[in-house]
Design a protein that fits this description.
6-stranded mixed beta barrel; 24 strands
């Protein structure tokens, strides 16, 4: 090892450039792998996490995708299952906490008492929930997260037994969760037991998430079969929704979908991370090609040394070990330097990563990442050490020791190898540039979509919820929200105010069937599920989402309990070619409910983000009579949209707080952000991917240009005599420049051709990340090819100029 280091130290420029080049490639791979490892590969941070599963459902007869859990199913599975060692259910929401300071709205997790035992999590202090805590009519209790306990209660060890006022009701604090505990992808401040009354449950309300632990030896197939067995038991044990029959539910194909809990935690982020890891893998290959060329040049200069060692008895294996030893040591040194770059790169990744990227707190440089870095370093060293061994490990003694060979042209084979390496770099850089270009085109396409609102920078959004403990009477809740909206509209600079249970793209989802009078379904079928939204007056005007036909819902409709509804353009066109034809038609939420007239059609909305299909939505007034069997349903939690002409929309918030608290001082204001921030958040994963691919493409192009420059420069140095002869015979400077540029251009053209062909196949792997652009978009390919060609010719121009400035006399005299 010492001899190898000494050997490398004799060539400090070569060693430094090689180590830095490798550090760039290995560091990028280590940084991205640390994210892949933390998010995708690590087991969940729970005991025997491979036993944990998510319990979901499918009903292909009424909707694509998965259904979460319903309380009726939860209790059926809890009583009758044969496959689960434990079953829990939870629901992430927000609650109002008052009495500690200013009223605030914090994230909360409602759980069944069995949830923490399923996860095998014990509290840091105090106790966990019991069956009694989770029973209706018992004392109200709560548990706190460790962070909230520290932040709001100063880490008071005497907190157990104290009272916390949540949604207007006093709850006894019985426990504090461990400091390192994170509830899957959520970070709640407060935990509350459900306290379901079984006598009031029915088969429906799929708004909850289930987690279960499989018994030892139970497979997913067995678990799904057992869930399918238990679903009909729920029909017998609990009531069905109003107007629904058992035949309708059976026709829908309702069945279980039990899968590893890790799939729920990770979601669909895997495709993005694997694409990024593959991308930086290409960068490492380009870096290795650069170092390989450097190694070839260095090995060529050591032919006499190798020849002498061979003449003195050194075997080819010993010579090969010398080359491989140096290359692997360089690879390891590059890996060590890469780790330092990876640490900084990982911090940058975490800073710019999407906030909804799961398991961010588990991304570290751990032994697995270190092992990956070591393996990549050794493999890279072996890779770029292989070429010198193959080409110079068995030198021709006579040729190597021959005098006067210094200025002779290099062998065709050696030129061929260097050109192939440079061509490979251009090809890989072309692939990365095309991938980055496709993401740029996707981003541009997304920005041109009308998402269902205009000028989002002018709109402040925030949520105000009125719990029953504050205002019990439903009519009073309506009046309170109307008064809040009136006071908000009187704030100077405010041009419009409206409210809904969900602002477009805020990830608040609610789906239920919609029965169309003109399009009846058979008695034993359920129509497709649609996005339910409940709005106040002036909501569409504030969002600047045009009403394409008819009129919008007003406060008069709300107070008069009018049987009216609006639908989105997407839903209207699904049934009628012209949205205006929907006006006057009737809909209802269940087969026995009253018909409600469609009074308006709103413009297209993209509630799930512009990268997804537009939402088929139905809008109800915030207060609806005779809805799902309720005499009066009132939406208590309203997300307000406030449009202002002020240059800084956030400047209205102090006046907003005063207006809300003048109606009720115990109503916290939550989720304060501009509509532009909501829109940007919906684009954050695309933006993150774009930035990462862009950085990789820039690095790849730079390394590729350096590779071409190195190859052409070396070629010029080896052809000095030939160039001198050409110029002595009358070749002009322009002729020599074109000669050298032709060589660089040939490398570029071949590399680009290979890169374009490879990109056709490879970019299809990222099709799921694209929007509004094909994976083989001609414009992107043409621009990428043009850019790579221009940069390659620019890299060839400097050595071409140097070649053109050769003095024939000096060149021939030197020879």
């Amino acid at each position: 090892m010492k001899n190898l280091l000494n050997q490398l130290a004799r060539s400090p420029v070569f060693t430094t450039v090689s180590v830095l080049t490798l550090a760039l490639g290995i560091g990028a791979n280590t940084a991205i792998f640390s994210v892949v490892n933390g998010v995708l590969l690590k087991p969940l941070p729970f005991e025997d996490s491979e036993e944990l599963v998510g319990v979901w459902h499918v009903a292909p007869g009424i909707a694509d995708g998965q259904f979460p859990q319903s309380p009726a199913l939860h209790f059926t599975y809890q009583d009758h299952n044969q496959v689960f060692a434990g079953l829990g259910m939870f629901d992430n929401q927000t609650v109002a906490v008052t009495g500690l300071d200013e009223p605030e709205r914090v994230s909360a997790m409602r759980v069944t008492f069995s949830t923490f035992p399923v996860l095998r999590v014990q509290p840091f202090m105090g106790r966990s929930f019991t069956a009694e805590d989770d029973s209706p009519g018992t004392a109200l209790t709560a548990m706190l997260s460790h962070g909230y306990w520290q932040r709001k209660l100063g880490g008071d060890p005497g907190v157990i037994g104290q009272t916390l006022r949540v949604d207007g009701r006093a709850r006894e604090i019985i426990g504090v969760m461990p400091p390192d505990f994170r509830f899957l992808i959520y970070d709640p401040a407060v935990y509350i037991p459900f306290q379901f009354d079984l006598s009031e449950l029915y088969f429906g309300n799929f708004s909850y998430i289930a987690v279960a632990r499989l018994k030892p030896g139970v497979t997913l197939e067995q678990a799904n079969a057992d869930v399918d067995r238990m679903v009909p038991l729920t029909f017998e044990q609990f009531a069905l929704p109003p107007g629904f029959s058992r035949e309708m539910l059976e026709t829908s194909g309702f069945a279980g979908d039990v899968h590893p809990l890790k799939e729920d935690v990770v979601g669909n982020v895997g495709s993005v991370l694997w694409v990024l890891l593959g991308t930086v893998g290409l960068v490492l290959l380009i870096a290795c090609a650069n170092v390989t060329n450097l190694f070839l040049v260095r090995a060529e200069g050591r032919q006499k040394e190798v020849a002498l060692r061979t003449a003195l008895g050194a075997s080819r294996g010993r010579v090969a070990r010398q080359f491989f030893g140096e290359s692997v040591v360089l690879g390891v040194l590059g890996g060590v330097a890469g780790l330092a770059l990876a640490y900084g790169g990982m911090r940058v990744l975490l800073a710019i990563a999407p906030g909804n990227l799961p398991r961010l707190n588990e991304i570290t440089i751990d032994p697995t990442v270190l092992g990956f870095t070591l393996a990549v370093s050794v493999l890279a060293g072996f890779l770029f050490g292989l070429f010198p061994v193959l080409h110079y490990g068995n030198p021709n003694l006579t040729s190597a020791l021959k005098e006067g060979g210094r200025g002779s042209s290099d062998g065709r084979e050696r030129h061929y190898v260097r050109n192939v390496l440079a061509t490979s770099q251009v090809a890989l850089a072309s692939v990365l540039l095309i991938g980055s270009g496709l993401m740029i085109r996707s981003f541009q396409e997304m920005r041109t979509v009308h998402p269902g609102f205009e000028r989002p920078d002018e709109v402040m959004t925030f949520r105000v919820s009125i719990p029953e403990a504050e205002i019990e009477d439903a009519e009073a809740v309506i009046l309170a929200h109307q008064e809040i909206q009136r006071l908000l509209s009187e704030i100077p600079g405010v041009t419009s105010v409206g409210g809904s249970n969900s602002i477009t793209m805020d990830e608040w989802k609610s789906h239920d069937p919609v029965f169309m009078e003109d399009f009846p379904v058979p008695a034993d079928e359920i129509p497709p599920l649609r996005r339910y939204k409940r709005v106040t007056g002036d909501y569409f005007a504030t969002m600047e989402n045009p009403v394409l036909a008819g009129r919008a819902i007003t406060w008069s409709d709300i107070h008069n309990r009018a049987y009216v509804a609006m639908i989105s353009e997407t839903l209207a066109r699904e049934y009628w070619e012209d949205p205006s034809q929907a006006i006057g038609r009737r809909v209802r939420e269940n087969p026995e409910g009253p018909w409600r007239e469609i009074i308006g059609v709103s413009g297209t909305v993209y509630d799930d983000g512009v990268s997804q299909e537009p939402t088929a939505a139905i809008y109800w007034p915030m207060a609806v009579a005779n809805f799902w069997g309720e005499d009066l349903f009132v939406q208590r939690s309203i997300a307000y949209a406030l449009r202002t002409s002020r240059p800084n929309a956030a400047s209205v918030m102090p006046e907003v707080r005063r207006a809300v608290w003048s109606v009720n001082p115990n109503l916290p204001i939550a989720g304060v952000r501009t509509l532009e921030e909501i829109f940007d958040q919906s684009m954050v994963r695309t933006s993150f991917t774009l930035v990462m691919l862009g950085i990789a493409a820039v690095v790849a192009i730079a390394l590729g240009a350096i590779g071409i420059y190195g190859v052409i420069s070396y070629s010029v140095s080896q052809r000095t005599r030939e160039i001198g002869v050409r110029m002595a015979l009358g070749a002009r400077h322009g002729d020599v420049t074109r000669l050298v540029l032709r060589q660089g251009g040939l490398v570029a053209v071949v590399g680009i051709a290979v890169g374009l062909g490879s990109a056709v196949g490879l970019t299809r792997l990222m099709s799921s990340l694209l929007y509004g652009v094909s994976a083989v978009d001609p414009l992107t390919y043409i621009l990428a090819a043009t850019g790579v060609c221009a940069i390659s010719l620019l890299a060839s121009y400097v050595p071409a100029r140097r070649a053109a400035s050769v003095d024939p006399n000096d060149a021939l005299r030197w020879e």
